[in-house]
Amino acid sequence: MSLPRRRILASTAAAVLAATGTGARADGARTAGARTAGGRPGARSAGGAGPDFGALGRAMDGRLVLPGDADYAEARQLFQPRYDTVAPAAVAYPAHAGDVAVCLDFARRSAAAVVPRGGGHSYAGWSTAAGALVVDTGAMAAVTADGDEVRVGAGARLAEVHEALAARGLGVPAGLCPSVGIAGLALGGGLGLGSRAYGTTSDRLSGARVVTPDGVVREVGADRDPDLYWALRGGGGGNFGVVTELRLRTHPVGDAAYAELHWPAGDSAAVVRGWQRWLGGLPDPFWSQVEFTVEAGRESVPALRAVCLDGRAELERELARLTGLVGREPRDAWSAVRGYGDTVRAMAGCADRGAGECRLPGRLPGRDPRGRLGRESYAARSDFWDGGGLPDAAVAAVLAAIGRYGREVPGGGFGVVQLDGVCGGAVNRVPAAATAFVHRDSAFLAQYLAYWPRSAAPAEVVRHQGWLDGLWRDLRPCAGGRAYQNYADPGLAGWRGAYYGSNLPRLEEIRRAYDPGRLFRFPQAV
What we know:
alpha+beta, Uridine Diphospho-n-acetylenolpyruvylglucosamine Reductase, domain 2, Uridine Diphospho-n-acetylenolpyruvylglucosamine Reductase, domain 3, Vanillyl-alcohol Oxidase, Chain A, domain 3, 3 domains, seven-stranded antiparallel β-sheet, five-stranded antiparallel β-sheet, about 30% helix
């Protein structure tokens, strides 16, 4: 689970928490067994030069943004500024599943490349493509609680989901980054604060509305298109169709106890070893993370963060056990108890932001004119670590990479190593073949990141990426070769096995059944 704005998270969170059926539908869609009827846009322009996007725009109830439109510069953006130069041919904002079916029909008949987009956080930039039709789900973002389930539009961002559910005393296990889209997260698994207690986001998925490449709108669940339902639970976004709504089983939330501890840099190896041993006996209602953030000219110290859903007393008991395993007292520590929703907001860097401010700024769906979130460019790689976690050689490799950062990387950026205790508990009690999410026997998830400023020249970006790749290579002799599909890594040669393991053959069979023409194409498509 990647935390947002890593350089300011600790100080901001600390300050705030310490102080505070078949046929037509009313929405224009058609359910499984029926294609969209009528209003089919002409696929080619009158001159035959290319797809007639004007006709597509007229056939939709939602909006189509084209190059030259006032909002095109915003519409083409992903979360990372480094992809701002990618120029799609059009960006569609469907109003409902029927609009999505129109878009897919248009793409199929015109041979236009089509790219689904939720929050636009694809690490590799695969939420867009040059000359493609981008289908952005941002206008379909309603969050509606229904008993012990919630219906969530695929365009909803995590901030909206957490806020809406916390107001009702409910939650779903999900990440923290507020502008990440719920659909992309869930389709790739989804790991967060409540995962050890309640499973992955995809484990909570009871059903979904999906527009498959043939233009059929399907209400998918355990007894309807069960193979597709299985694939959606961890098989990765952009592979099987465009999801327009998810149904998720919620869980109750109350107060959450949060703690943060720091040790001197010289205790780094002891902290990692002690934390790994601590994880083995940790009760399910815990999340924890060890993080190193390194910048040129500044010492990197180990920061340990923990959240307990069972209250302060349980948290303090476990932290005492942790300190004993580390064998050294932290140089500073603090804890606080707040409502679950307030804790999530603070950890997301949004505790001091009002309604609409924990969003990216803008006028288009998925954004808010009041938004105060920023965008950042970075690269990342990941490993699921099994069994005992990082052996001593791997710990030494991590600390060596941190030590050489200032010599290898130009100023203005920063590097991050996150050891994320989101595995175990409920996540690991699900059999690997029960859903498409195969990572069911890991001790924790590690993520390594390199950030650079917008002003970085291409040669400087290469050096940031080089530091990241060097760290990753140094860990290969110890790593198990599995990676998180939601952290798309374009440099990962064995990505099929790393992301999907023994579930890959079934995923490929389902992909052939639902998208035999491979309408959805990107470099790591199943």
